[in-house]
């Protein structure tokens, strides 16, 4: 970790993240009040954001997870998206909210959205901590965005560098050179 830590430049502090998560929680609680809500996290990257966000939404909800992999290692998602573990909670007729760490090309969410739409939820929305709109290859409706960022490869607060650095408590830009 120490070797890669020297290549990380802080982008979002723990305090900035916490403040924004709190705002999102308030907004989501207002939008989903009185609704049968299922919040679905996309593992692995979402784990810290999911835990913080769901606890900031003062409503009854079901929580569930899907594990997906964009094939390939390193900095690029290949566009080949594989469901490793499916969500085991029924969303038919219920209000489903997908929670993701970052939307980059949009390929992952495009596919996940399609799969979940086939299950006929009453509604399906997307909440992401980070969005890199300049990188989009397919259009995907992102309803709630924590932070919109420039085209940088970021790590921490769930986001990995080849499996590592997810447990950094803040978000940083990884600069390999
Ligand atoms: P997409 O399918 O939208 O291109 O990418 C989605 C996935 O690619 C994210 O869930 C994340 O796992 C990975 N990803 C995209 N951009 C970044 C980034 O800047 N840093 C890290 N660590 N992962 C990223
Ligand atoms: Mg992800
Ligand atoms: Mg990754």
TrEMBL record:
GO biological process, one term: hypoxanthine metabolic process
UniProt-annotated location(s): Cytoplasm
Species per Swiss-Prot/TrEMBL record: Mesoterricola sediminis
Family affiliation: Belongs to the purine/pyrimidine phosphoribosyltransferase family.
Gene Ontology cellular component list: cytosol
EC number: 2.4.2.8
Keyword ATP-binding: no
Top-level lineage group: Bacteria
Cofactor: Mg(2+)
Reaction it catalyzes: IMP + diphosphate = hypoxanthine + 5-phospho-alpha-D-ribose 1-diphosphate; GMP + diphosphate = guanine + 5-phospho-alpha-D-ribose 1-diphosphate
Entry's Gene Ontology molecular function annotations: guanine phosphoribosyltransferase activity; hypoxanthine phosphoribosyltransferase activity; magnesium ion binding; nucleotide binding
Location of the Phosphoribosyltransferase domain: 13-160
Keyword Magnesium included in the entry's annotation: yes
Keywords for the protein's UniProt record, in alphabetical order: Cytoplasm, Glycosyltransferase, Magnesium, Metal-binding, Nucleotide-binding, Purine salvage, Transferase
Protein name: Hypoxanthine phosphoribosyltransferase
Biological or metabolic pathway of the protein: Purine metabolism; IMP biosynthesis via salvage pathway; IMP from hypoxanthine: step 1/1
Enzyme class: transferase
């Amino acid at each position: 970790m120490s070797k890669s830590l020297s290549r990380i430049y802080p982008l979002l502090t723990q305090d900035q993240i916490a403040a924004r998560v709190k705002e999102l929680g308030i907004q989501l609680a207002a939008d989903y009040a009185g609704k049968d809500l299922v919040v679905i996290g996309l593992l692995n990257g979402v784990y810290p954001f999911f835990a913080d966000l769901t606890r900031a939404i003062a409503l009854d909800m079901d929580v569930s997870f899907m594990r997906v992999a964009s094939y390939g290692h390193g900095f690029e998602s290949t566009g080949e998206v594989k469901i490793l573990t499916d969500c085991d909670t029924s969303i038919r007729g219920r209000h489903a909210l997908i929670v993701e760490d970052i939307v980059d090309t949009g390929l992952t969410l495009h596919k996940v959205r399609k799969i979940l739409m086939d299950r006929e939820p009453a509604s399906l929305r997307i909440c992401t901590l980070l969005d890199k709109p300049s990188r989009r290859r397919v259009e995907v409706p992102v309803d709630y965005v924590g932070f919109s960022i420039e085209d940088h490869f970021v790590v921490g607060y769930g986001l990995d560098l080849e499996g590592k650095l997810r447990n950094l408590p803040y978000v940083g830009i990884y600069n390999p050179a």
